Amino acid sequence: MIKATLSLFSQRDFWYKDMSFHAGNRNASRRINPFMSSGILSNSSVDHEPAILPRSEHSISRKQIDDNTLKVLYRLYRNGYRAYLVGGGVRDLLLGRKPKDFDVGTDATPAQVKKLFRNCFLVGRRFRLAHICFSRKDVVEVATFRRQPSLEELPEDPTEHFFLVQNQFGTPREDAFRRDFTINALFYDIANFSVIDHVGGLADLEARRLRVIGDPPVRFAEDPVRMLRALEFEARLDFSIDQEALEGIAACTPLIVEAAPARVREELLELFRHGVAGKVLRRADEIGLLNPMLGGYAGDDVTFALLDLLDGETASGRRCEEALALAALFVHSFLSECPVSTDLRIAEVLQTANLALAPYCNHFRIAHGIRHQAKDMLIGCYRFARGRGRKGERRFLQHPATPRALALFELWTRASGGDPEQVNIWRDALRDKDETPSDKPKTRRRPRRRRNRPKPRG
Predict the structure, then answer these.
(1) Is 0.90 surpassed by the pTM of this model?
(2) Is 442 within the bounds of a domain?
């Protein structure tokens, strides 16, 4: 698939020495854009031509691309604009994977895109994007190529810098150098079906290597969430992180607390959706990123083993809800705080569950409904661990959260080396509850008595 491209790289000096991309000179000097020490190369200093793979040298076919995305690409191209498939969609297609979605890059401005599509909506106050809506669930995102502005272009008011930086339109090459990782900066040109590589992403795909564009510590300081994304790509794609990127992550771990909690929360949910939460969080714990990223959360071996089992359930087709992920993170520490030998009252167990979940939920502003579902699963696991024959068992078996709690308890039992017979006993109890008819006789509802209204006088 990509091996045919190696001869192309050996025939032309594609590597950018001033980016230290050359394999034989990794300590070469870098030219950093002076704006905010962004660590992105000054594109005017790099005049090398990109590597272009013609259709005959790669495996991407239009049959693999969503029909609506093709409509957007062709309409832009036929109206005189450049139209590229960009980002992770190109990466996944080259790796033989099915992309989650497709993004489009173009030199048309958002206003020009809106003129071409009646179903276009412009979103984002600072970073303007065009969303082409074909249905509520089928939206194609179109972004205009952007560039890093020079220091002279910045306004005098520092508060206006961010808005200007996010809306400086540029060339495809300038846009490629603004992206995070080399494997995410590949373009598929709908005009001639070629793959365009400005930053060496094809070679990194071949080597299964994850490399940051620019200086890793500076790029991670620019957006700390990139550290978590690097670990996610390492686990999802089975890649190895470049040594410079690893050193950058180790140096920048305290900066993750500056990231918006909403973004970190969404990235965490992506880990559970893709079935890599166990691998990523274990790796984050090894390099010291986990504790500051999750508001002081401390992982343990049993929890990571449980997350691995939960990832296996996700891979088999079971959807992982946020409440289940939240309960899975805290079930082992919660049960350690509530040993069954002490025979605690349920009110005390409920208080312990609230205290266990509170720091995490407050940090990420988890909705009360999700927090309540996770709490029910934790208390259910305590009831399961305590055994049968306790007060309130019949009501507990009829509770709608009990089956989900039993699924979590089974995973915890396997991860902690507990007794699987305890799980079987409770599973039989749930099955008997469903099969046994209710002892309460069905009574006929008494008809509502009509009220006699007084007749009007006269």
Answers:
(1) no
(2) no
